[in-house]
Amino acid sequence: MATVAGRAGYSWGRTLFYGKGGVAIEDSSTTVNCDYQVPDQSAIVCRNQARAATSGYSTPSYTRVGWTVGFGTEFDLGKNWSAKAEYDFLSFGRHTALASDGTTFLTDRSDISQVKLGVNYRFAPGAVGPKF
To answer: Residue 76 in contact with residue 97, Cβ under 8 Å?
Structure first.
């Protein structure tokens, strides 16, 4: 999963409050396992849309492009250090793909909530390295 996002905010003293938005990308696949039993049979048997026995279904990997929005705060700890907390919501919408049995279509929806906590170090010009 990857995101490309911009952020804009308001600073109040040593604290930055911001919102963000952008593009989200994920690599996905869908797998479904059979977990029910057909009446009058001693073994667990699933039937696909063509009535063939199967133990489950899967789709090949695919790349999805969606969107992300979020908000957060970052606090200046001094000496080029800061701490941050952020919430992001990512949505990739619905996707339908042909399953590995060649007859069944699987549809899924992917929405993700993330919470990020972090510590940052800012490399300021002249702060690191020799001076000539």
So the answer is: no
Give the pTM.
0.73
Domain range enclosing 74: 2-28+61-121
Place of tokens 């009446």: 39
Domain total in the chain: 1
Q: Quote the tokens at residue 15.
A: 């604290």
Q: Looking at the domain assignment, is residue 131 inside a domain?
A: no
Query: What is the chain's alpha carbon radius of gyration, rounded to the nearest angstrom?
Result: 24
Using one digit for the tens of pLDDT, what is the confidence trace for 10-54? 999 999 999 999 999 999 887 776 655 556 555 556 666 556 666
| 42 in any annotated domain | no
In contact, 55 and 33? CB cutoff 8 Å: yes
d(CA 92, CA 40): 41
